[in-house]
Design brief:
The protein is α/β, with parallel strands linked by helices. The chain contains eight helices and 13 strands. Helix 1 packs across helix 7 and helix 3 packs parallel to helix 4. One of its GO terms (molecular function) is metal ion binding.
Length: about 280
């Protein structure tokens, strides 16, 4: 089995600050680092480190070849990560002393995905594989339709959140992952509670309080507590959670078991500074 990820690839530029700037305020950073990031890249690395085979579908610019090389070094399949003209995606991340963050994203090459690229990639998929995507690339509807036509189990991480983006692919989804704020925003926009969505499994992450799983067919709702840790950096924790969740399902775990695995990975991730480069290996959990 395999996981097929239409996902963003970003250069993460992280600046440590004492507090988030107010309008018009200039702050001095007391730390800086550059690393591999993007919600898509993070999830691909998490899937691989959770011991699943993952193929990344997307694009980088000339300035992003180091990111493609690093993904390959980490074991992610990059045969379908195209090289295009223009800048690669970037994320400017402000991280304060309370481990909270604010992020500005430049889409760059993440919006250069074509339907032909998607079709070529999914030609190698097998019915029953898992497909996943987020809201940092273009061509999401085309990917959703192609994945379902190929018989794949389709998951969507609804971030960065836009209700219109979720609504456009909702009918195709088997798994929807979002945080509590995103769930409230989606309910407000669509007028439908999470348990009333036409998606088999809805997973709502609750930060330090864990997560909630809603099995819509049965109406069952279960909460899972998160391991207690002292956070250092919450950036990438949700992506790590999602990658581990999908890897667990890919490997035949029941949803409850996959969620427990994902909770451990997300908890360990927030104790580390960085994104894709520091996602934990499965044997660390």
């Amino acid at each position: 089995m395999a996981i097929w990820n239409l996902g963003s690839v970003n250069a993460d530029l992280v600046y440590r600050v004492k507090h988030m700037p107010k309008p018009g305020e200039t702050l001095s950073a007391h730390g800086h680092q550059r690393g591999l990031g993007g919600k898509g890249a993070n999830m691909s690395v998490a899937c691989h480190r959770a011991a699943s085979h993952v193929e990344h579908i997307g694009a980088v610019g000339d300035d992003g070849l180091w990111m493609k090389a690093r993904l390959a070094e980490y074991g992610v399949g990059v045969a379908h990560l195209a090289e295009v003209a223009g800048p690669t995606g970037q994320a400017i991340i402000l991280l304060d002393d309370a481990a909270e963050n604010e992020i500005i994203i430049l889409a760059g090459s993440n919006h250069a995905v074509t339907e032909a690229m998607i079709e070529a990639a999914l030609a190698g998929a097998t019915a029953g594989d898992i497909a996943v995507f987020q809201n940092e690339t273009n061509a999401q509807v085309a990917f959703a339709r192609a994945a379902k036509a190929a018989g794949l189990r389709l998951a969507y991480a609804a971030a960065p959140f836009e209700a219109e983006a979720v609504a456009a692919v909702l009918e195709h989804l088997d798994i929807l992952v979002m945080n509590a704020v995103e769930a409230e925003q989606l309910e407000s926009a669509l007028g439908r509670a999470p348990q009333d969505l036409p998606v088999a499994d809805v997973v709502i992450t609750l930060g330090g309080d864990g997560c909630r799983w809603i099995h819509t067919a049965s109406g069952a709702v279960r909460d899972f507590a998160a391991p207690k840790v002292v956070p250092v950096d919450t950036t990438g924790a949700g992506d790590t959670f999602t990658g581990y969740l999908l890897a667990g399902l890919d490997q035949g775990l029941a949803m409850e078991e996959a969620l427990a695995l994902a909770q451990k990975a997300g908890a360990l991730m927030v104790t580390r500074l960085g994104t894709a480069d520091v996602i934990p290996m499965r044997d660390e959990l």
